[in-house]
């Protein structure tokens, strides 16, 4: 067996193996500390690129989710306003029935009290029209016939998509009635009783007859039918937004899981590898020591 003092191939081989073990150990220790098997393009360029694209979409879907929550809040406000409006118009209808009976009886005292209640209901309607807004958006007092686009999803290739809501039936309800305009379902003059709108009905006005109040009732019933239709449309829009919220939530979870399957480290495997590599590292140190010991034996030949 020969020994080379200038080139110790055994030691070089042992050192190379030890360095490789150390590099592999560093890799698994990094996985345990970060929780990622792929933390950058250098680890796996293809998987890192795919995961980065997916993470971008997950971030965008977070913004979509926030937008949908705001949309749901707006539609919920509209629903509450429309339901309250229906209740108030129902009360108006009852007051008109009472007024019609009182006019027939000639009871002007109770008729005045009934008108006071009608006036209060009219003020409530105006209050609803002016206060039903979320972040400055009011679907009950805008220009009739408008449509609204609500952000519903986003894809990195196709871009954003929207839910289109036709607010024609709701914006036609109050329109700008709270500022005194005579437009909208409640603000415009009636078809049967053309002297006033629902917001300005007065059963104590001069010359009002039982027949006039009957016409007022016809206009109120027509308005009630239109308001109910508007509430139904908003309810359908709410269902669409709720369904989209569920879809976006599930899609976000799926994408996050997919990213995890690509880049997350297997912690059990990494921990097991670290234990094995630490043993291998110790053996490598011992192998290197043994390889270097040959030169020490040669020195002893010279009494060193």
UniProtKB/TrEMBL annotation:
Residues 7-142 form the Flagellin N-terminal domain. It comes from the Bacteria. This is Flagellin. One of its GO terms (cellular component) is bacterial-type flagellum. Belongs to the bacterial flagellin family. InterPro entries: Flagellin, Flagellin_C, Flagellin_N. Keywords: Bacterial flagellum, Cell projection, Cilium, Flagellum, Secreted. The lineage of its organism: Bacteria, Pseudomonadati, Pseudomonadota, Alphaproteobacteria, Hyphomicrobiales. It is found in: Secreted; Bacterial flagellum. Transmembrane segments: none annotated. Its main location: secreted. Residues 219-302 form the Flagellin C-terminal domain. GO terms for molecular function: structural molecule activity. Flagellin is the subunit protein which polymerizes to form the filaments of bacterial flagella.
């Amino acid at each position: 067996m020969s020994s080379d003092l200038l080139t110790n191939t055994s030691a070089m081989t042992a050192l190379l193996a030890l360095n490789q073990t150390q590099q592999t150990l560093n890799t698994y220790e990094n996985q345990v500390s970060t929780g990622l098997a792929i933390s950058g393009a250098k680890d796996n360029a293809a998987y890192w690129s795919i995961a980065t694209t997916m993470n971008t979409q997950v971030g965008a879907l977070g913004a979509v989710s926030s937008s949908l929550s705001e949309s749901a809040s707006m539609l919920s406000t509209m629903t509450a306003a429309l339901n309250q409006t229906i209740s108030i118009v129902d009360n108006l209808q009852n007051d008109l029935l009472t007024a019609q009976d009182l006019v027939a009886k000639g009871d002007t005292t109770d008729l005045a009290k009934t008108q006071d209640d009608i006036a209060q209901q009219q003020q409530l309607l105006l209050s609803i029209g002016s206060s039903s807004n979320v972040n400055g958006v009011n679907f009950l007092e805008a220009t009739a016939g408008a449509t609204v686009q609500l952000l519903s999803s986003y894809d990195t290739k196709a871009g954003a998509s929207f839910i289109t809501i036709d607010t024609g039936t709701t914006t036609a309800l109050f329109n700008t009635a709270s500022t005194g305009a005579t437009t909208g379902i409640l603000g415009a003059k009636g078809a049967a009783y053309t002297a006033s709108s629902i917001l300005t009905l007065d059963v104590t006005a001069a010359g009002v007859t039982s027949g006039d109040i009957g016409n007022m009732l016809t206009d109120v019933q027509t308005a009630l039918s239109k308001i109910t239709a508007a509430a139904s449309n908003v309810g359908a829009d709410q269902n669409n937004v709720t369904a989209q919220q569920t879809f976006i939530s599930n899609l976000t979870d799926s994408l996050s899981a997919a990213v995890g399957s690509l880049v997350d480290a297997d912690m059990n495997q990494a921990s097991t590898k670290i234990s094995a590599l630490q043993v291998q590292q110790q053996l490598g140190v011992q192998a290197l020591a043994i390889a270097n010991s040959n030169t020490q034996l040669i020195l002893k030949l010279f009494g060193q």
